[in-house]
Design a protein that fits this description.
- The chain has 439 residues and is mostly beta strands.
- The chain folds into three domains: 109 residues, membrane protein fhac (Ubiquitin-like (UB roll), Roll), CATH 3.10.20.310; 145 residues, membrane protein fhac: a member of the omp85/tpsb transporter family (Porin), CATH 2.40.160; 141 residues, Beta Barrel (Porin), CATH 2.40.160.
- Helix content is 8%, strand content 53%.
- The protein contains three helices and 21 strands.
- A 16-stranded antiparallel sheet has the order 4-5-6-7-8-9-10-11-12-13-14-17-18-19-20-21, with no helix packed on it.
- A hairpin with a 5-residue loop joins strand 13 and strand 14.
- The radius of gyration is 25 Å and the shape is globular.
- The relative contact order is 0.08.
Length: 439
Amino acid sequence: MRKRILQMKYLTLCMKAVLCGLVTGMVYSQTIIDSTHIGKKISDIVIMGNNVTKDYIILREMKTKEGDLLNPELLKKDRKRIQSLQIFNRVSIQIIEENQSVNLFIFVTEMWYIYPYPIFFINEHDWNKISWGAGLKHLNYRGRNEKLYLTLWLGYNPTLSVKYRTPWFLSKKDLYAGLDIDYSHIRNKHFFSRNITEDHIKVAGSLGKRLGYHMFVSTTIGYEEVSVEPEYSYCLNSGSDTDQIPFMLLNLNWDHRDLIEFPTSGFYLSLTGIKNGFPNYSVDYFRFNLDSRVYIPLLNSSTLALRTASTLSFGKVPLYDLVYFGYEERVRGYFSKKFEGENRLLFSSSFRFPLIPVRYYNLGDLPELQNLKFGVSGSIFMDSGYIWNQEDTFDRSQLNTGFGVGLLFHIPIANIVRLECAFDERGRTEYILDLYVYI
């Protein structure tokens, strides 16, 4: 009832202001703070625009609480944390004074949460390796930021995948969980010149805990089977036509980025240890992954982004689980070239700067078509990567380095589309069209 009264009060104030010609587009600024409000007590925090999303999904991202004194810098960071949930087109904050205190109004514009979509992509930049199919996404199931994914594609490497993620497991706000069920029929990358295929079946369950606002720890326990035709049994560690792989994963994530979709300050650190198989099993090896990123804000809203990532393996790694550049992870300048091995190291840096600042547009009357963003940023980047095997001596001279320039288009849903021109050490040129910010 209190929330409803405050909502009506705010709407009445806005209508009066518009009729008097005092304000236009009040809601559309990111965060509106009058200097006279600083240090005043916050009596209420009211969420508006969340027709689907539960209030507590938004409030749990905020360090600002009812009863606190208004802190503008903290409030700006809160807004970015809510935006980083990646379930809203836009998040803005308005402050209304009431007697000697203030009320906070958090405005969110919700995205389309559930939709089918076609799948069509070219594997390994080879037109002879086309996959096609369809998927179904629900990005905010039950209004609790739960994710449901169902995907099926045929053609090259046919795959069926079901995934579920919940950040609010068993009604405990500090626990999150996930479930993955996957089947895929994959062509072996190691024997690229031969048509050797593998059937992968995997089931995995994850349970994690959120420590404060920025740190997460989780464990994943699962089971995978990898099968081949009997004549290709030499591809598996067991020497038979099937490898059976129980596995356990431990992960620590420390995510202090200001905005996940396009970070401009903060840092990110991920440490992962994966144990595949058990001693005296045909599959028995350990893998350690590190991914660290730092974002340094510079003048005129520009950012220097730095990344170091590595994979280290210990034990006999199966041929189907080697690490690569040229697939999910790439070195720009060698974007389409394939490298394989047991260990991997990647350095990347990018200087990003705005060209057309992000603006928001309305394309229709539906809430999901409100506050759709568009903007353009530029980037200058350099990547350097190296892959080697456990018995090899690390040789820095074998690093493959590329550099280039690019345009980053800020758009709804996909967030970032990259159009880049990259060069290797010999000056050979390649053009890249890809999604999401690279670092």
